[in-house]
Amino acid sequence: MVRISPILGTFPKESVRQFLFAKQKASIPGWLVFADLGLHSGKYRCFVIDLTEGRMLEKGLVTHGSGRNGLATGERLYSNQPNSYLSSLGRYRIAGSYFGQFGLAYKLLGLDSSNSNAYKRFIVLHGHECVSDIEMEDLICQSWGCPTVSPSFLKTLQRVIENRPLPVLLWVYDSSE
Questions:
Q1: pLDDT digits over 87-137, tens only?
Q2: In what order do the strands lie in the sheet with 31-36?
């Protein structure tokens, strides 16, 4: 039987469903980062979950892709196509770190057909000052398809990613679909 901490009671229902699915997969490492792009971007929608203990460890805000011409308020579109500037849904392996245009960043390797072009699209996990550390009523900035978090949340994720013996997976999905 899967044990779920009371903290997950405040977790969005679709995220709990994704958690339970991930928990049942023996090949998924002990920690997983969920990004639910179906939630309001000013709300916490990026969660670090310990699958072994069934508890949420960290949470933060995360952007979604703007598309080539920007998206209307609340609109969500997804694509795996180069130059679409849209987010891609699916599972990613968080790979090596590097220092780029926005400082520390992590390469993302798409593991599904819906995000298989992530590496060649330069879709990476990085921080940016336009992303707040706290929830807000307003929408946060949009990215060119990268899951972008606040610089301080990226430092939190860095500790998670770099201190795990197995690769950490990022699962990007939309609970409103």
A1: 999 999 999 999 999 999 999 999 999 999 999 999 999 999 999 999 999
A2: 55-60, 46-50, 31-36, 169-173, 90-100, 103-110, 124-127, 148-149
Amino acid at 83: N
- The model's pTM: 0.84
DSSP per-residue letters across 58-92: EEE----B--TT---TT---B--STT---B--EEE
- Token pair 């990226």 is at which residue? 154
CA–CA dist 93, 87 (Å, integer)? 15
- Cβ atoms of 101 and 120 closer than 8 Å: no
Backbone angles phi, psi at 85, to 5 degrees: 60, 25
The sign of the dihedral angle between the CA atoms of 138, 14, 159, 89 is negative
Q: How far apart are CA 143 and CA 118, in angstroms?
A: 14
The string over 70-93, giving b where at least 16 C-beta atoms fall within 10 Å of a residue's C-beta and e elsewhere, is ebeeeebebbbeeebbbbbbbbbb
Q: What is the rounded CA–CA span in Å between residue 91 and residue 20?
A: 15
How is residue 168 annotated by DSSP?
A: P
pLDDT digits over 127-169, tens only? Answer: 999 999 999 999 999 999 999 999 999 999 999 899 887 788 8
